[in-house]
Automatic annotation (TrEMBL), chain A:
Region (Disordered): 50-82
Name of this protein: Transcription factor TGA1
PANTHER family, sorted: TRANSCRIPTION FACTOR TGA1, TRANSCRIPTION FACTOR TGA9
Keyword Zinc-finger recorded: no
Example GO BP: DNA-templated transcription
Protein's organism: Raphanus sativus
InterPro entries: bZIP, bZIP_sf, TGA_domain
GO MF entry, a single one: DNA-binding transcription factor activity
UniProtKB/TrEMBL annotation, chain B:
Assigned keywords, A-Z: Cytoplasm, Redox-active center
PANTHER family on file: GLUTAREDOXIN (PTHR10168)
Protein name as catalogued: Glutaredoxin-C8
Subcellular location: Cytoplasm
Matching Gene3D superfamilies: Glutaredoxin
Start and end residues of each Glutaredoxin domain: 40-110
Cited CDD domains: GRX_GRXh_1_2_like (cd03419)
Gene Ontology CC terms, in alphabetical order: cytoplasm
Family statement drawn from the similarity comment of this UniProt entry: Belongs to the glutaredoxin family. CC-type subfamily.
InterPro entries tied to this protein: GlrX-like_pln_2, Glutaredoxin, Thioredoxin-like_sf
Record-linked Pfam families: Glutaredoxin (PF00462)
Amino acid sequence: MNSASTHFVPTSRVGIYEPLHQFGMWGETFKNNIGNGGSMNTPNHILIPNNQKLDNTNLSEDTSHGTPHMFDQEASTSRHPDKIQRRLAQNREAARKSRLRKKAYVQQLETSRLKLIQLEQELDRARQQGFYVGNGIDTSSLGFSETMNPGIAAFEMEYGHWIEEQNKQICELRTVLHGHVTDVELRSQVENAMKHYFELFRMKSAAAKADVFFVMSGMWRTSAERFFLWIGGFRPSDLLKVLLPHFDVMTDQQVLDVCNLRQSCQQAEDALSQGMEKLQHTLAECVARGGLGEGNYIPQVNSAMERLEALVSFVNQADHLRHETLQQMHRILTTRQAARGLLALGEYFQRLRALSSSWATRHREPT
Amino acid sequence: MQYRTETRSSLSSYNKVNNMGMFPSDTLARVESMAAENAVVIFSVSTCCMCHAVKGLFRGMGVSPAVHELDLHPYGADIHRALLRLLGCSNGASTSPGGLPVVFIGGKMVGSMERVMASHINGSLVPLLKDAGALWL
């Protein structure tokens, strides 16, 4: 940038004092020495290759800066005191600015790092839920997984596989229903699909023992599915609402049975919801007992812990209700109807997952 | 009258099969009589939320059950133990901590919340209630 810098031995480290080389040059060096300074006191890791905020030329000036400063004081204080003072002030200012820039850059790095961790977690979750994700990124590399609980980590992995298998089964059902296939073959597909759902309930039961809050939160599901969450899963009555329009021809007995099922399902759901409300009330009471504000709350926390055990049984009962509802539908319907129903149900959840994905990426489209 | 017979035979055969000699017979008799006094009898704990749910289920169907809160009952602990044993051999695993609620219909034990809900969904609960006279149409 300036002619002065070429007279000096370039050093790789900032702020190194090299008096011998700058012996006769001090007069020229200060002309353009704005924008650097104080580097004699700062450690050498300021050297940052990609500098959005730092000016490369300033770095090279740093090496030349320190020394002439010293000579300046010795040789010309008597001759140009004002100039010297001004130069010192400029240097201080430059040093200050350099430190601020460094701080801003480091802060930017920190924010980017956090963002990266977040993105990796999202990616991990999305991959488990069946979205195609580029395999170049190793999402466990930073080791910041929130699933420190081995039971939950196992569940999340199993759930990822469950979704893959579910998608496969839905494809198969679709193909099979459009073709001509015997009832026997259809029956085995239906049995597999039912078993697959029951397998999910078994997985959830184990996960609820490991961490019931995790199951209740629905964090293992996509966002749109979470919107409809009821005690850690779908509402059995919603399931019936989704399925029923797909059975065009039903016998009178079937119509009656379905009607009874809808009613009993709704009643059971309402009963469990009432139980959950009571649990919330008693838990809140328990946590708030004994006056808030004293700062001592270990007994309240301990007694609340006991109450939380009940949450596990609610999750289990809710899954049991889902299981029984599916089972009863299977009993009421013919094989072909059941196959159509399972396909409809499967695709319904696929659509919810697709909705979640679209929603998550809506901001990335160019406007 | 009909209820009493059914309970006695089911409970006494249970006794023979499982050698519950150490089981205090008056507790058993007590459970029997309590289960027989109404069409629907629920053994519950006042603070239990699953018990609250099962009570809500029956009330929502228009049934008024007789509820015994065992934590407030003088012989509650004995009765609770007896019920757990009855449950243990028929269910295999109780889903609620403590095993309650336990539901009797027409003097016969139906079981825990899980069994009650399963029978409601598969359509067997309503006929049972009608037979016991707890529901009309």
